[in-house]
Amino acid sequence: xxxxxxxxxxxxxxxxxxxxxxxxxxxxxxxxxxxxxxxxxxxxxxxxxxxxxxxxxxxxxxxxxxxxxxxxxxxxxxxxxxxxxxxxxxxxxxxxxxxxxxxxxxxxxxxxxxxxxxxxxxxxxxxxxxxxxxxxxxxxxxxxxxxxxxxxxxxxxxxxxxxxxxxxxxxxxxxxxxxxxxxxxxxxxxxxxxxxxxxxxxxxxxxxxxxxxxxxxxxxxxxxxxxxxxxxxxxxxxxxxxxxxxxxxxxxxxxxxxxxxxxxxxxxxxxxxxxxxxxxxxxxxxxxxxxxxxxxxxxxxxxxxxxxxxxxxxxxxxxxxxxxxxxxxxxxxxxxxxxxxxxxxxxxxxxxxxxxxxxxxxxxxxxxxxxxxxxxxxxxxxxxxxxxxxxxxxxxxxxxxxxxxxxxxxxxxxxxxxxxxxxxxxxxxxxxxxxxxxxxxxxxxxxxxxxxxxxxxxxxxxxxxxxxxxxxxxxxxxxxxxxxxxxxxxxxxxxxxxxxxxxxx
Length: 505
Ligand code: MCA
Ligand code: AMP
Description:
Elements: H1 5-10, E1 20-23, E2 29-31, H2 32-49, E3 56-60, H3 65-77, E4 80-83, H4 90-100, E5 104-107, H5 112-121, E6 126-129, H6 137-143, E7 159-165, E8 173-178, H7 179-192, E9 200-203, H8 210-223, E10 226-229, H9 235-241, E11 247-250, H10 252-259, H11 266-269, E12 274-277, H12 284-294, E13 299-304, E14 308-312, E15 326-327, E16 332-336, E17 349-354, E18 361-362, H13 366-371, E19 379-387, E20 393-398, E21 403-405, E22 408-410, H14 412-420, E23 425-435, E24 439-448, H15 456-464, E25 475-479, H16 492-498
Parallel strand pairs: 1-10, 3-4, 3-5, 5-6, 9-10, 9-11, 11-12, 12-13, 24-25
Antiparallel strand pairs: 1-2, 7-8, 8-18, 13-14, 14-15, 16-17, 17-19, 19-20, 21-22, 23-24
The structure holds methylmalonyl-coenzyme A and adenosine monophosphate.
């Protein structure tokens, strides 16, 4: 049997292919027949260009229906899809291209000139563009071809995608996700979240991360139903379109912004089947404020790029604030100490997980991969957790030095390396501080060579070209020295305590 994710999803498409798959904010609809034809054309084009199964296809484009169809076309042709955040700068993209060596790069028309140079240097054979409407050289070439209906035979273990996640060393790692990883998550979540005929998912997430690309999109396709497809999260647009939806997935910032809007009422949300949250901790106060306003409990789940979804609060039974629920039915989790010894109920340690959702390893980093797995196959998530007497998992912190801002991960080391390289800087420490909208915001404590060596504006200008906007510190604190312990290690907890009220009152 062909285990290609696209083959498994297409078996679930409605037999009447004239049913809607995407509804645009202006009411324009695309049906499943169109999806299949476009995916088939993109697959035919990849084959015609000589992109072989297993070769990487890197994509940095705006969100559009054609971007989704191209993702499906890559699956269909057996290519390995490599999505990149649209906020990444040229220097960030350059690293991914050199590391992943894609056969094809799809970028925005405005990036074509600057990126062609680095793509050619990285040996990329085919460079195409796609604009925010999904048009450009790639679509034009695909439209000249007849749709292919051949779906490349793939096994569960074959790669479907590579998603880069930054590392504690500052160097990004490509998490290799297989067809089996993605399909296990898609079908399990489809089942446990009670997907049904007539569901309409309100999609306002970006499509370059697991959440918006795999969790929201694949579950919808596995259901053969439709999504309202917003280019980005805009609270007024979400409220305007909410009456047409039955479920929504978002990061906590989405729910914080909805609650801040007076038109988000019990009546406005009464028809909704479920609101799902993840990618960052949902504050208990948000959970309770949401329940008070709407009478509904947000369903919080937990996952990561390397694992897709790991745990979820139940759809039918009690959803508990401050918890991420139970392991998915086909996933095992445990809490262990640093040596890998199992801990008991309510004991705090590092969460480990094993199951068909866990990635195959980091692209061309076997040593790094080996470090993150126990000998019995459990993946060490780096999240600090406990499991209570009822089996609910609580994420209580992170062992990894990671900031999550509005659902985007920021690794301090990467920012520190860029700040430290600026003129007039001795060293820096990057921390996450509580922020009312983003949950956490990036801030940096900086030691200068002399008080007049540099200032905030100069420093920010210097680092802007190298780092995506969401990674830039929202505040800089100039200090005479960084607090260190007797071992010389920077005391980030002390810095976080000193500046904890910088964004909140
Ligand atoms: C944008 N900016 C941000 C963020 N987003 N700064 C900090 N944190 C952010 N998340 C900055 C921009 O650089 C810009 O700065 C300014 O804010 C306005 O940009 P804009 O795009 O207008 O912002 P926004 O539309 O308000 O975006 C906020 C957002 C968005 C809606 C929360 O960040 C978002 O959609 N986040 C979702 C991320 C996500 O999908 N995560 C899933 C990955 P300036 O004005 O200075 O230029 S995690 C995952 O997949 C795992 C597996 C999981 O568990 O789900
Ligand atoms: P990413 O690498 O972008 O996939 O981010 C994964 C990380 O996001 C996890 O390791 C957690 O630290 C965090 N995360 C995701 N969902 C939740 C959640 N519901 N609660 C707390 N942290 C979460």
